[in-house]
Amino acid sequence: MNILVTGGTGMVGSAFKKIKTDHRLILVGSKDYDLRLQSHAEKMIIDHQPDAIIHLAARVGGVKGNTDYVADFFHENILINTNVLNSAQVNKIPRVVSLLSTCIYPDKANYPLTPDQIHLGPPHKSNFGYAYAKRMLDVQSRAIRQQHGLNYTTVVPNNLYGLNDNFDLENGHVIPAMIRKIWEGKNRRRPVALWGDGSPLREFTYASDISKILFLLATSKDDLSKTINIGNTGEHSIRSIAEKICNYFHYSPLDIQWDTSQPAGQFRKPSCNKEFVKMHPDFKYISLDEGLRQTCDWFSGNYPNIRL
Ligand SMILES: NC(=O)c1ccc[n+]([C@@H]2O[C@H](COP(=O)([O-])OP(=O)(O)OC[C@H]3O[C@@H](n4cnc5c(N)ncnc54)[C@H](OP(=O)(O)O)[C@@H]3O)[C@@H](O)[C@H]2O)c1
Questions:
Q1: Stretch 270-279: mean pLDDT
Q2: What's the CA-to-centroid distance between 207 and ligand 1, angstroms?
Q3: CA 305/CA 308 separation, integer angstroms
Q4: What is the distance between the alpha carbons of residues 231 and 101, in angstroms, rounded to a whole number?
Q5: Which residue has its alpha carbon closest to ligand 1 atom 7?
Q6: Is the CB of 173 under 6 A from ligand 1?
Q7: 279, part of any domain
Q8: Which residues are catalytic?
Q9: How many domains does the chain have?
């Protein structure tokens, strides 16, 4: 099979390079095709004639980027998603698996988060542009499945981290931001300020687990007519993760200043991955300790030649 991965140069996409397979994996980034343009999306499909597409390309960011550029996040993601799905459908590509995110769930949802709740209320106001664009990716996939009988589906990971992440403090996510702050605090011998009080609980999945799961789903005969959650479950407090990172870099957690004047976010947002576990009971997620170890290792080995 030819499997085309959009967003192939990003954190999740680049993790596909480690998958050993006889299938042909084609990883493309924005320098190959600017998917905001229909003509580029069309050319990408004609150039590679994929049997399946794993669609990851997106404008991705942290809370600040999502809020400051809310219109851009909506517009660019709507264009990217609709161009990819429409070109795939017109060219009769039989299978497309696209990635959503738990941050698109309604702000007020029942826990654990289950995919039947995705469209049942407004998303958190900080990222509504990104969230509605991702929700439309789900709508368009279902519409194509219904009208054209093609196997287009969406799956939902939770918070991700890993190699090749974005370590920009304004635009990155919580784990890469903490890794960078603590590493720089240690090397510049200065205290580290982290937002909130560290008490919120979150679930995290190592990016290479997500690439393995997407590969499994794209190449399997699984019934993907319904959206499923695919993230690793099990909650960890932000404070406990900061302590693990401190431990790795030999930095005293006592030197962390928790800035309680800054927002801490929702207390918890657990998700339910039972459907995925039922489909692939043998799949083993990498533990948070091991994933963090590999990520901290990669960060300190590649600093500063990474996304900062
Ligand atoms: N990171 C998380 O915590 C998280 C959580 C849940 C879901 N997700 C989802 O996971 C997917 C991958 O995220 P990631 O963390 O790997 O993001 P990332 O590292 O920022 O990678 C984004 C990818 O999208 C590509 N891209 C962006 N704009 C594009 C455009 N106009 N045309 C073509 N390609 C474009 C980038 O290409 P270039 O690098 O070549 O510009 C890059 O390959 C996204 O769909 C995201 O919504 C991420």
A1: 97
A2: 12
A3: 8
A4: 9
A5: 101
A6: yes
A7: no
A8: 130
A9: 2
